[in-house]
Design goal:
It comes from Vagococcus allomyrinae. InterPro entries: GH, GH_1_N_CS, Glyco_hydro_1. Belongs to the glycosyl hydrolase 1 family. GO terms for molecular function: beta-glucosidase activity. By secondary structure, this protein is of the alpha/beta class. The protein has 16 helices and twelve strands. The protein has a single domain, classed as TIM Barrel, CATH 3.20.20.80. An eight-stranded parallel beta barrel has the order 1-2-3-4-5-7-9-10, surrounded by five helices. β9, α15 and β10 form a beta-alpha-beta unit. Bound molecules: 6-O-phosphono-beta-D-glucopyranose. 6-O-phosphono-beta-D-glucopyranose binds next to loops.
Length: about 475
């Protein structure tokens, strides 16, 4: 086993998103956000509830009392951030990845002046982190945007939203330039293919564009918004680093049949497309044919390609949870998959309770592939296991399964670093239990810190340390040696 591979300033920590932890959705001038409209619906447990259609949106706005909106309450980080940050510090976090709620700063997204109370909240959070020697890493937009921008512009379908985003980013860079040096633009930007509302504020039925045309046009606008934000960040905070963030969908061919391998290549391209543009600063060759085959024509302005070139990111970050198996689709043309559910089972892998295949070696493969392709530093923005924890009579949570999952993944990350891959940080997803993104449930827990709250908001919200808490503390203290 390889040891002591991590650089001594390696950034260990955890990652969260504003919409999944803050709560206080209507306090201190915050405007409604897209994430406030996602409900918990027990159903048969199979449907994701985070992409909202127009009919549902109208209904939720008219009759909010009929629905359970867990992301509106989060885990009350808004009032408990000091206690939570103290616990992160106790584990020895070097970095804390978090996002800012856009509608806390610009309630509708269209104001020209920011909401001071919103800005002041994040000042307090950053001060608290820095007092504990934890470096903040901020995602500008993590699956939420002002709802008003959806209702008025259909989100990033409209080019006008770019200017609103860049104004928001500029306000943050200026305000926090001395406190925050690490940034990311859009969380899992490639998820627009499966979740256009959550990712881009786009509702398909409100558009005249065909499905793919709409998704790729919104993508283009987000590319431009991201590139302009990167440029501003460099101008305003010269010693900053700003990255992109992709949901890495590592694909294996189901067999050695060339047609299966070809399908895997196509699926890979749909995933790489996003990082190709954001890291290399240009549209990759393989999209030309896809756009032709699907009659997709991206509307661009004269200097768009130059903006992309000018706004390449400093590093690439990714979430890694699982791998996928691909099979030839016969006569069907290649289609972007982007599915969050692995439809073809990999017989060699076990799965989480939510059916997500567990593949630590795939993590090493993905890190090597990405570094091979891009040669830029990598940051692991998310990795972790969602599980149903059981609280024992004495209040303890013995989450050995989480320790197993994380230690196996960190071990493979260590191997990748030994392979020569430049990885400069690792933040586990949800170091404290939070509201799940895809299903808005509380029972899918990722944390080292248990939060006493159920899917319906019952509970004391008290925080307690799980078994994995001390384990991660030891991982950080030994710089990844003791897993
Ligand atoms: C990523 C998101 O897709 O996966 C997070 O960036 C999300 O916001 C995480 O929480 C895990 O997904 P889920 O649905 O289990 O919360």
């Amino acid at each position: 086993m390889t040891k002591s591979q991590f650089p001594k300033d390696f950034l260990w920590g955890g990652a969260t998103a504003a919409n999944q932890i803050e709560g206080a959705f209507d306090l201190d001038g915050r405007g409604l956000a897209t994430s406030d409209m996602t409900i918990f619906d027990e159903g048969d447990g199979s449907d994701f509830t985070f992409d909202v259609g127009q009919e549902a949106l109208t209904e939720y706005l008219a009759h909010p009392e009929r629905y359970n909106f867990p992301k509106r309450r989060g885990i009350d980080f808004y009032h408990r951030y000091q206690e939570d940050i103290a616990l992160f510090a106790e584990m020895g976090f070097k970095v804390y990845r978090m996002s800012i709620s856009w509608s806390r700063i610009f309630p509708t997204g269209e104001e020209l002046e920011p909401n001071e109370k919103g800005l002041a909240f994040y000042d307090k959070v950053f001060d608290e982190l820095l007092a504990h020697d934890i470096q903040p890493l901020v995602t500008l937009s993590h699956f939420d945007m002002p709802l008003h921008l959806v209702q008025t512009y259909n989100g990033f379908e409209s080019r006008e939203v770019i200017a609103h985003f860049v104004r928001y980013a500029e306000v943050l860079f200026k305000r926090y330039q001395h406190k925050v040096k690490l940034w990311m633009t859009f969380n899992e930007i490639n998820m627009v293919l499966t979740s256009p509302y959550t990712c881009s504020g786009v509702i398909s039925e409100n558009s005249e564009l065909s499905d793919y045309q709409l998704k790729y046009q919104a993508t283009h606008h987000q590319f431009i918004a991201s590139a302009l934000a990167v440029k501003k960040c460099h101008e305003i905070i010269p010693d900053s680093r700003i990255g992109s963030m992709m949901c890495r969908l590592e694909n294996y061919a189901e067999s050695t049949k060339p047609a299966d391998v070809l399908q895997t290549l196509h699926e890979d391209h749909f995933n790489y497309f996003y990082s190709d543009v954001q890291v290399k600063g240009e549209y990759p060759y393989y999209m030309t044919r896809f756009f032709q085959d699907y009659n997709i024509e991206i509307k661009m302005e004269a200097d768009d390609l130059a903006i992309l070139k000018d706004g390449v990111v400093d590093y690439l970050s990714l979430s890694y949870y699982m791998t996928y198996v691909m099979r030839d689709r016969g006569e069907e043309k290649p289609q972007p998959n982007g599915s969050l559910i692995a439809t073809i089972k990999n017989q060699h892998l076990a799965s989480s309770e939510w059916g997500w295949p567990i593949d630590p070696v795939g993590f090493r493969i993905t890190l090597n592939r990405l570094y091979d392709r891009y040669g830029v530093p990598l940051f692991i923005a998310e990795n972790g296991l969602g599980a149903k924890d059981v609280v024992a009579a004495d209040g303890s949570v013995n989450d050995d399964y989480r320790i197993d999952y994380l230690s196996q993944h960190i071990e493979q990350m260590r191997e990748a670093v030994a392979d020569g891959v430049d990885v400069f940080g690792y933040t586990t997803w949800g170091p404290i239990d939070l509201i799940s993104s895809s299903k808005s449930e509380m029972s899918k827990r990722y944390g080292f810190i248990y939060v006493d709250q159920d899917d319906y908001g019952n509970g004391t919200l008290a925080r307690s340390r799980k078994k994995s808490f001390d384990w991660y503390k030891q991982v950080i203290a030994s710089n990844g040696d003791q897993l």
